[in-house]
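Hi Prof. W.,

I finally got the Glutamyl-tRNA(Gln) amidotransferase subunit A prediction working! I wasn't sure whether to trim anything, so I left the full sequence exactly as given:
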Amino acid sequence: RAHLDRIAAVEPSVNSYLHVSEQAIATAEAIDARRAAGEQLPTLAGVPVAIKDVLCTVDMPSTAGSRILEGWIPPYDATPVRKLRENGLVPLGKTNMDEFAMGSSTEYSAYGPTRNPWDLERIPGGSGGGSAAAVAAFEAPLALGSDTGGSIRQPAAVTGSVGVKPTYGGVSRYGAIALASSLDQVGPVTRTVLDAALLHDVIGGHDPRDSTSLADTWPSFEQAARRGAQEGSLKGLKVGVVKELAGGEGFQPGVLARFRESLELLEQNGAEIVEVAAPNFEYAISAYYLILPAEASSNLAKFDSVRFGLRVTPQGGGTVEQVMAATREQGFGPEVKRRIILGTYALSAGYYDAYYGSAQKVRTLIQQDFSAAFQKVDVLVSPSAPTTAFKFGEKTDDPLSMYLNDLTTIPANLAGVPGISLPAGLADEDGLPVGIQFMAPARADERLYHVGAALE
Ligand code: GLN
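And this is what came out:
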């Protein structure tokens, strides 16, 4: 009830939610009744949670921020959502996002932008700005996001929250409306590292319905966070500063100042800091913005006016092709169209090897940079984003400048490794939150919770 009251009070200015659940109170009361009857319930039973609108929910519309899915209610729950329910968490509603998770500011949502609770004139990050703003504005204690190129970590950074992109395959993608299937991962957005660990424990694990889901058994991330918090010390931990992700053009001085301070804090806690080179990271954005549109153009082909959501019939009727064209013309926003065109071009006969093929080779080189770095260090560190929250409209006229904001987050997705963004204080020049990012080898998500909780 407190969260629903808070939502009612701040939503007119923040706009984190696309839909608020009508069943939250009934669900919470049912959990209370089970507890009162003496049932042993899972740790997070009864805790409310916000869900990014990219995840399918049987009881709420799931639009992925797009007009083309307006009002669509899926016939099944995404696996992470099903696990929330099985563990007794209480879905509060669906959060706003850039259309089909394309963007870094939530300005590309078809339903209006979310505002950053720290400064309502600024973006909350993206694509999962709704989840991060909901957590930062105390409209939800926990939220789920999805991270294809930073959409959990960058919104967490610019709202002073914690965000985790798990190892690729660590959390099921079943029922997550696909952006780029080889990059997408669902993960937690929270206010503390322990909260993120608890939520990750709930949503993670093998799912036979996702062919890329890892069959691993995972350690308890809650225990990793608790151990980290208890020990406090990072003695023996080797931390690599990625030269390519920690300075140069586009980095705000206040972000770099907080970053350097965080490195000092790490050293004071006993960690050893070394500089590592990742020479191919320079090409990460170029490779990502070919691979992502290629996969997205294929994934979005299913929105054909027949199977889902919107159907626009031209005046006087039309052929199947004309209905499809009119629906996609009106149903998709400008950034989605831009990426469909880019992706279709990059995949077309005669260009495939030059664009998509080269990008895949660069992706392999980036993975090799990570492997070489992890021979020398336990975790890598960088700022989570090059800047603090920017003002609305600052980057929408220039898509490239929006893409460049993803510089620090994209390499982890290309390599499938896990990453966490932690609050690192406020930038001097604007008083806005700065995030610091840690990355670990694939399957070593546990390390991120240990380090994060030790620093908190
Ligand atoms: N900013 C990235 C993009 O626009 C983030 C995508 C994501 O992680 N969903 O592609």
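Residues 60 and 73 are 6 Å apart (CA to CA). Does that look reasonable to you?

Thanks,
D.
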